[in-house]
Amino acid sequence: MTVYFIGAGPGAADLITVRGARTLAACRVCLYAGSLVPRELLAECPPGARLVDTAQLDLDRITAELVRAHEEGHDVARLHSGDPSVFSAVAEQMRRLDAAGVPYEVVPGVPAFAAAAAALKRELTVPTVGQTVILTRIAHRATAMPEGEDLATLGRSGALIVLHLAARYVDRVVAELLPHYGADCPAAVVAYASRPEELIIRGTLDEIAGQVKEAGVLRTAVILVGRTLGAEQFRDSHLYSPDRDRHIC
């Protein structure tokens, strides 16, 4: 049998992909992060499916549940918020399943940064303004950042930065980015993107920390900093230009 790592999307139950919903509906066992995955998604599971909330389980217990379901002949849906490719802790689960000889597949989902951009009604890559997006986090109580991936280093690029898991440390984020982006650089924080309680905060880099604290945002949010957030005067993309030779592949 197979374990399916399914991206459940950023929060709204209807933002799971068609493939994700179909896979979920075919699995007799579902492990989900109860603190992050919308419970409405569990209605997609087949009647009588075994549902396991992993919010209080460590890696060993999660792995044991996956292996047990496999040995019992059941396909398993492992629901993760957002997309499994970013900050999902999927890599260590895959490593454990490889060691146990359990096959698995990955079903991508809508990542939080994409939902945040949609809420802001912004394209994160704008011609002549910015063509690079950095997805990162900061070191605090969790795993340390690798050498060279601190904000002071990444900020030298001037690229649009999207920070996950950092709203509680917004003062530190601002302090490390200010020397590279400037006080007037556009910034935004989107909390609970795509959910009914979605909250959007817009401002400049020198004022965003105060706005975040005033709003009481501590978690389930992404911070975005970069010039593309405020870009208005920019060159049209070559993609749809009348000067483009459409006979060239």
Automatic annotation (TrEMBL):
It comes from Streptomyces achromogenes. The keyword tRNA-binding does not apply. Residues 2-209 form the Tetrapyrrole methylase domain. Keywords: Cobalamin biosynthesis, Methyltransferase, S-adenosyl-L-methionine, Transferase. GO terms for molecular function: precorrin-4 C11-methyltransferase activity. It holds the Pfam family TP_methylase. It is an enzyme of class 2 (transferase). This is Precorrin-4/cobalt-precorrin-4 C11-methyltransferase. It comes from the Bacteria. Belongs to the precorrin methyltransferase family. Coiled coil: none annotated. InterPro entries: 4pyrrol_Mease, 4pyrrol_Methylase_sf, 4pyrrole_Mease_sub1, 4pyrrole_Mease_sub2, Cbl_synth_CobM/CibF, Siro_Cobalamin_biosynth, Uropor_MeTrfase_CS. One of its GO terms (biological process) is methylation. Its EC number is 2.1.1.133, 2.1.1.271. Pathway: Cofactor biosynthesis; adenosylcobalamin biosynthesis. Gene3D superfamilies: Cobalt-precorrin-4 Transmethylase, Domain 1, Methyltransferase, Cobalt-precorrin-4 Transmethylase, Domain 2.
